[in-house]
What does this fold into?
Amino acid sequence: MTAASPDGLRQRRRRHHRRVTVPLTVVCALAGGAVLSGCGQQRDPDVYTVMNSSTDESYHRWDAQTLARCGKRLGVAIEQQSVPAAQVMTKALRMASSKSLPDVLQLDASEMPTFAEAGGLIPLKDLGLTTTDIPRGIVDFGSYEGTYYGAARTVNTLALFYDKDALAEAGLKVPATWAEMRSAAKKLTRGKRYGLALSAGGAEDGVFQFTPFMWSNGGDETKLDSPQVAGALDYWKGLLKDRSLSKSTVNWTQADVNDQFMAGNAAMMINGPWQVETLNTKKALHWGMAEIPVPKAGDDSVGPLGGGILTVPNTGDSAREKMSAKIIGCMSGEQEQITYALNSWMVPANEKAAAVWREKVPELAALSHQVATARSRTAKLGAGWSSVSLALQSAFQSALTGESSEAALKRAQQRATSGN
Amino acid sequence: MSTTTASSAAGPALPATRAAKAPKPPNPARTRLRRRLAQWGFIAPAVIFMALFFGYPLVRNIVMSFQDYSPSTFFTGRSPFNGTANWSSVFNDELFGKALWHTILFTVGSLIGQFCIGLGLAVFFSRRFPLNGILRSLILLPWLVPMVVSGVVWRRILDQDTGVLNSFLGTIGLGGDTPWLTSTGMALFSVVLVNIWIGIPFNMVILYGGLQEVPKELYEAASLDGASAWRAFRSITLPMLRPVITVVLVLGFMSTVKVLDLILALTDGGPADSTQTLGTLTYQNSFVQLDFGAGAVVGNILILISAVFAVFYLRANRNEGK
It folds into this structure.
């Protein structure tokens, strides 16, 4: 009895010791490995790397399939690295300073100007990629100061999603103008359900959602204190005053908006086609999609163009860069565009591909009209977009929480100009 | 003086016979040098480690705040010095003043809340009662949850329309329409509340540990003298706990003043910059606007504030030693 207890104690202590040491060793080995590979990453001559933000399982899988097909066609091995969207830019910059940039880099279109301005991208035309069959707007979308740096496979924009059953029950037709949307939203607000949901969060999500209202009303990001921008903001304030919008709107991301719509807490929402995959998991929800309503009947509904573009970063190895351009050519080829668009519910960038796609998914026709008039956020401001975006976020949040639209926007314009 | 100590130290260790055989006595200067080198040899790893992992980033950050450090720097490696341009642009930004004020409110509010509740719980749990251990470990839960996870969960709880908190308040007839995170006046307060919730376990654990060190006889003596519980707390517990309290408050200050992840997850600095602190401002400057020079300026200011408190802390500890 006397012997058992010290022995048991020692054993327990040893086990405890091992329990701590093993994970510690693993952590150290991983950290050491990460540090070493980060410092001196050598490019494997036979393997090309594509860095994107496809961290969702489905997107990662679709991209892997595309890369496998393209690799086979071009006779090279292609590896996919996916990092969260918010980290692509900073990660790529760090890779630039350690000379370990990937061969193909998928950037969000709003980030491309910054990267291009820093001298980090090779013009695609220099590498032999053409822009035939790509609509003007989408070429501009991938261009910075007139140079075409990024090929889009598919593009997206925002649209009005609505709950068909809720509209039918209230005897309403799908709103097409601001006045119709306001009154429809008011009628649809009942109990715990709001008429409309949108994102006015303090990040790029909110700005993305504000642009269709600002642009359709004739406003512009170069002059935030114009009456047109104030009119758009007043329209949002009006919806909030009617209680058609939840007060939490200022806190919601676009994913939150989708959650609220799916939970039946909103009868309509402004959102993008990337939500469709999630929306379709709820079979009981019968949703429809329409263009975002415009101030007056007959106006153009101008939405923001979104989506990733494929670029060739400046790695200094021209032979590899040529092959990278071929990989982009394959990934953004007609057939691959249609496949990717059908998977991800986005609109093919190529005109011919878009025509085929429209026949296959007629229910998304509203989206293709919206894309045709959509604008790129960075077309006018380029790398200056980020400071205007921050000023605008602060302005619409101030206005939605009580300040007058004019005062908030006036301050935003001052901040945007002094920030540059 | 040192020669005598050296020889006297070496003397008794050597047997007399061998000392006599030794051809010549060890050179005292060389011994001293060797000992010095050995001392430095032991200290060197620590010094190198500090210089590499603390000194270098610190100096780098200070230098960076005087440089034009933009995305193109990552490609060209060039970051020309631009004098105090970054500093003046940060100080001229009205957001900086706001963020500084919010940081003060956030830090002071969090510290007071965390400390008072933590101390209360520590005192409560230092008595014996059933389930004491289990309850005490349950209270540690907020500590185990990563900040970002707490932020996301609390954002749902505090949602004005669909949040659990408001629906609970509504059920018990206390309104239930509080704009926790959606009003510019309320958001900072709510963020502080969540941070208090997160900080309680740390305060409780350290203060509980401190309370165990207070000799029980003191309380016995006090009760014999007829001291009330409050009097015993004020005249025994608090003074005996003072060193621990300093540690808790200074460490709490340093971890609170730079909080970033919690605020980003809860409000993203909004609505309308009402929860923007120096921490979120650094993040926004560096990683949203990619203006690394301005980000470094705000970072340096944060380091400076922390350093001032670290000095106070060291001072207080030194006085304690005397």
Q: What stands out?
A: The CA atoms of residues 247 and 271 of chain B lie 34 Å apart. Chain B touches chain A through 34 residues (CB under 8 Å). DSSP finds 16 helices and no strands in chain B. Confidence is low (pLDDT under 50) at residues 1-14 of chain B.
